Amino acid sequence: MTLAAFIVLMLLGMPIAFVLLASTLTFVITSGNYRLFENLPQVIFGSLEVFDLLAIPLFILLGEIMNEGGITRRIITATRAWFAWIPHSIAYVSLTSNLMLASIMGSATAQIAIMSRVMTPELERDGYDKGFAAALTAGAGLLGPIIPPSMVFIIYGVIAQVSIGAMFMGGILPGLLLFILISGLIAIMARRARKKGSVDQERTPLWRATRGALLTLSIPIVIVGGIAFGIVTPTESAAAATLMAVMIGALFFQELKWGQLPGVLSRTARNTAIVLFLIVAAKAFGWVLVYNQIPQQVAGLMQGTTESPLVFMLLVFVMLMVVGMVLDGIAALIILVPILLPVAQQSYGIDPIHFGIVTCMTLSLGLLTPPVGAGLYVASAISNVSLPRITKWILPFIIAACLVILAVIFNPWLVNVFR
């Protein structure tokens, strides 16, 4: 009955959080065990009583303040000046700006939204196909869930009860590998995507652009450096970075005004509520799966299929690729990690950080794969480009991400280099 409700509601196009919550309530009502009505509120409220989740609204607030305070714009201006000497420089500007924003914001969809609004028109003005411009912005958005700070790493750390700082450090090298692969793709694809006879726009002088970005570069240093050296926790780094962004935007750039704060706080509260509601719904649905002993059944199935940790990880990779196409990444993470992680640790001896990096990266591919494909829809809506026109260019970015994930699966040491 629960599975039927889940499938029907998904097919009807109901938002995934409501699908999960409605499926959970269907099970509780039809189970005949009325004690579950007492347990469900405890599960719901207990899922939010975790200190580390405080980092989520703080990083969302940080992103909003950066936009309103002129910080994001200065990062993009600086990267344009730095790469002016490279052929197809504006495409590399889009990628590098994504990398820098990923090291500050933590939210892939917010990052794709910002870059689509700013960079797609710039790429189009420089003569690039609009579909390529939107696809590049969406594809580079995959850096968001990998480069620290990452919202999905925070959620995984809370669920798996592992160090969020270790997750952040583990994501650095895979993120840089993806950055390098996408750079190679740009060298190959940009020539075909650009109209003949196009001329680069005039750039801001190097020193002036760099001077404007120097203060902004201190924000990722505080976030990543503070966590790497054990000075602050991820939540504390988010608070410190947010305070720095307020000071830089209000005092140094003088673009962040008191009148903007209600809008900033309102958007932060709304986006935080969306994420937390999804966490609550997915946690409740995961509780139903545990109650029905689904983890034990999956463990038995996996152990009967293979005894090799490598084959197990490859099976998980394929399964998560499929799940990511139909289910929101955060919801899938909350539902599947309690099922798969015990199997990975107890039956195959897999490091939970290694498993977490692979899981988060694979589910993040769902940003670019229909029918869910939140990153594609955001890029399409903001860039005003049809989905078919974007998907024509997006496949190479998906392949690049898959290659990095496979490299991490076959070489677990990649997640330990910066830990």
TrEMBL record:
Domain TRAP C4-dicarboxylate transport system permease DctM subunit: 3-414
UniProt keyword Transmembrane, yes or no: yes
Gene Ontology CC terms: plasma membrane
UniProt-listed Pfam families: DctM
Gene Ontology molecular function terms on file: transmembrane transporter activity
Tree of life domain: Bacteria
UniProt keyword annotation of Nucleotide-binding present: no
InterPro entries associated with the record: DctM, TRAP_DctM
Biological role: Part of the tripartite ATP-independent periplasmic (TRAP) transport system.
Subunit structure: The complex comprises the extracytoplasmic solute receptor protein and the two transmembrane proteins.
The protein's name in its UniProt record: TRAP transporter large permease protein
Highest classification ranks of the organism: Bacteria, Pseudomonadati, Pseudomonadota, Gammaproteobacteria, Oceanospirillales
